[in-house]
Write a structure and sequence with these properties.
- The structure is a single chain.
- This protein is of the alpha/beta class.
- It has three domains: 3-247, Glutamine Phosphoribosylpyrophosphate, subunit 1, domain 1; 249-422, Rossmann fold (3-Layer(aba) Sandwich), CATH 3.40.50; 448-593, Rossmann fold.
- Helix content is 38%, strand content 23%.
- The chain has 18 helices and 25 strands.
- The strands form four sheets. Strands 3-2-4-1-10-9-11-15 form an eight-stranded antiparallel sheet, with helices on one face. A seven-stranded antiparallel sheet has the order 5-6-7-8-12-13-14. The protein has a five-stranded parallel sheet with strand order 17-16-18-19-20, with helices on both faces.
- Helix 9 runs parallel beside helix 13 (399-419) and helix 13 (399-419) packs antiparallel against helix 14.
- The longest helix is centred in the C-terminal third of the chain and has 36 residues, at 424-459.
- The radius of gyration is 25 Å and the shape is globular.
- The structure holds 2-deoxy-2-amino glucitol-6-phosphate.
- 2-deoxy-2-amino glucitol-6-phosphate binds at residues 296-299, 344-346, 349, 352, 395-397, 486, 600, 603-604.
- The site of 2-deoxy-2-amino glucitol-6-phosphate has 16 residues, from helix 9.
């Protein structure tokens, strides 16, 4: 987690620019913030625990001199979120400042070694060892850049670092291993950041730094070298076509609401993915001996829904696996005949990448579905598809979930076609239906948002919720529960409805809210049975139903009615929309910030 940002300007003050860049990275972690600049041979630092705006109000983060500096927004891993643990971290003599995203696995050994050499540590972080390591190497009168390289060679674990030193006051030295790092290149300035939106307002020319590379930034430009052999790497900037305003709220009070509303547009983009990529991935899936669908959180729910799709349409059995369980569950059996379809919005989730690595070591084929070009997943996958959702800033995944479902549906339909398992007429109907989904989602948002808002008002004080669905609806139930829990902090449960009577039903008492996902598919009759069971025990039934489902309307205390008319396999996309809106409005009702849920970060890059 954590966001790092650095810049060198030919003229002007760096601190306000770094502050602005960190605001764009705040979704990566926001328990403390800090900036360091260099001016006339001195290092200046301001840092504290708290969100960026609060720290700025206390310390005025813009008021630091100098045209060069680095900054950091933190999600704590080592050391509590106190001021002393906030980045940047310095060496003993306050000559060097380091910002870091990642985890240094051997920091305890390095710290002991450095303490024995007389270094004094101020924080409990792993990061501080980097500053002292560099300081130690620089005692041998080596150049700053060489000292950073030597330090990086000593470190095990993951890092994206940006370092400044008063000994080289015109340089930022950065390095990367398993944590994202990109450069932004402009005429009179140069930037380094954890991701592109941080510098997009300043430049749309970007260079992705690869694992094992070190970069020297100066006002003359950038020089990339391989840390291992010091070979020079030539890499030209690429043009990024995201408009800066794509990463802004565009008038919505929160990114999450903006991203929910953006779904029709994003789903249209997702339908424009070139056939050649979908065809290639379909070929790999068709040939696979066994297929694992591997992901975390919301992306895992997309995989779960996809496992039904692949089975129902393409007659392909798949194993959806939570990434953090993959090594334990399948690490020994995965082999050259195995294929992993790995789904990760960020492409940087540590648990997901660990599963990928273990499978690659056993010669399995890795296919990737991600939203981030240049992410680690795109570099390790044999074939990857970019889902085209645009940057998602809200911590709660919304538009990226529906885009993932759209891509996975397209793959399942293509595979069905390839395998000749489904009639031409049915394939045509599925393809046409997929094309209609963006309009259907648009209509659901415009007609149901107000009703969902009222529903949230009515149920705002409930202590817990139960989400139930059957078949693909059970994946939607899980996703609805995750959304509600992560931003409203209401402990909730989700189960396949049939499983609810094997234990969870004992929780039900008068007024216990149960949300049912009720598409008019092959599970409809059984879902009605489950509603009756819950109702008989006093539950308050909230049903998400297809338009004119009079039978369920009769049974439910409240319902949200959506007009889809889609084949049953495509129901998850429209059915999840009311649940995303419900979670958003519940979060507001309970006085939370839906974009920045406590203890969470957008991209979970620690195991
Ligand atoms: C979703 O709302 C979550 N915040 C989280 O579960 C997320 O989906 C998960 O961390 C996986 O992220 P990824 O798709 O970037 O790998």
């Amino acid at each position: 987690m954590c966001g790092i940002f650095g810049c060198i300007l030919k003229k002007g003050e760096a601190a306000p620019i770094i502050h602005g860049g960190l605001k764009k990275l705040e979704y990566r972690g926001y328990d403390s913030v800090g900036i360091a600049t260099i001016d006339r041979g001195h290092l200046f630092i301001k840092k504290d625990s708290g969100k960026i705006d609060d720290v700025h109000e206390m310390h005025d983060l813009d008021d630091l001199p100098g045209r060069i500096g680095v900054g950091h927004t933190r999600w704590a891993t080592h050391g509590a979120p106190y001021q002393v643990n906030a980045h940047p971290h310095t060496d003993c003599n306050k000559q060097i400042a380091v910002v870091h995203n990642g985890i240094i696995e051997n920091f305890a050994e390095l710290k002991t070694e450095l303490e024995d050499l007389g270094h004094t540590f101020k924080s409990k972080t792993d990061t501080e060892v980097i500053a002292h390591l560099i300081e130690e190497v620089m005692k041998k009168e080596v150049l700053f850049v060489d000292a950073v390289r030597e330090a990086m060679k000593r470190i095990d674990g993951s890092y994206a670092v940006a370092v400044i030193s008063v000994k080289a006051p015109d340089q930022i030295v950065c390095a990367r291993k398993e944590s994202p790092l990109v450069l932004g290149v402009a005429k009179d300035s140069i930037y380094v950041a954890s991701d592109i939106p941080a510098f997009l307002p300043k430049t749309n020319k970007s260079v992705v730094i690869e694992d094992g590379e070190l970069v020297v930034l100066s006002d003359k430009g950038y020089e990339i070298r391989s840390i291992a052999d010091w070979n020079l790497v030539t890499r030209e900037p690429e043009l990024i076509d995201w408009a800066p305003e794509a990463a802004e709220k565009q008038g919505y009070p929160h990114f999450m609401l903006k991203e929910i509303h953006e779904q029709p547009l994003r789903l249209r983009n997702t339908l424009r993915i070139q056939d050649q990529y979908l065809d290639l991935m379909t070929t790999f899936l068709d040939r696979a001996g066994e297929v694992f669908l591997v992901a975390c959180g919301t992306s895992y729910h997309a995989c779960l829904a996809a496992s039904y799709l692949f089975s129902k349409l393409s007659f392909l059995a798949t194993h959806p696996v939570i990434a953090s369980e993959f090594v334990e569950q399948h690490g020994k059996s995965v082999n050259i005949d195995s294929t992993l379809l790995v789904v990760s919005q960020s492409g940087e989730t540590a648990d997901t990448l660990e599963a990928v690595e273990s499978a690659r070591l056993r010669a399995a084929t890795v296919l990737g579905l991600t939203n981030i070009v240049g992410s680690t997943l795109t570099r390790v996958a044999r074939v990857y598809i970019v889902q085209q959702s645009g940057p998602e800033i809200g911590v709660a995944a919304t538009k990226t979930f529906t885009s993932q479902l759209s891509v996975l549906s397209q793959l399942a339909i293509k595979l069905a076609k390839k395998r000749g398992k489904v009639s031409h007429v049915e394939i045509e109907d599925l393809e046409e239906s997929l094309e209609r989904i963006p309009d259907i989602v648009e209509e659901i948002i415009s007609s149901e948002e107000e009703k969902v808002k009222q529903l949230a008002k009515k149920y705002a004080d409930r202590q817990t919720f139960f989400f139930l669905g059957r078949g693909m609806g059970s994946a939607v139930a899980l996703e609805g529960k995750l959304k509600l829990m992560e931003i409203s902090y209401i402990p909730s449960l989700a189960y396949p409805a049939g499983e609810s009577k094997h234990g969870p039903i004992s929780l039900i008492e008068s007024g216990f809210p149960v949300i049912f996902i009720c598409p008019k598919d092959s599970t409809h009759r059984s879902i009605i049975g489950n509603i009756m069971e819950m109702k008989a025990r006093g539950a308050s039934i909230i049903a998400i139903i297809e338009k004119d489902d009079e039978e369920i309307k009769e049974l439910a205390d409240d319902y949200i009615e959506i007009d889809t008319g889609l084949p049953e396999v495509l129901s998850p996309i429209p059915f999840v929309i009311p649940l995303q809106l419900f979670a958003y409005y519940m979060s507001l009702e309970r006085g939370n910030d839906p974009d920045m849920p406590r203890n969470l970060a957008k991209s979970v890059t620690v195991k």
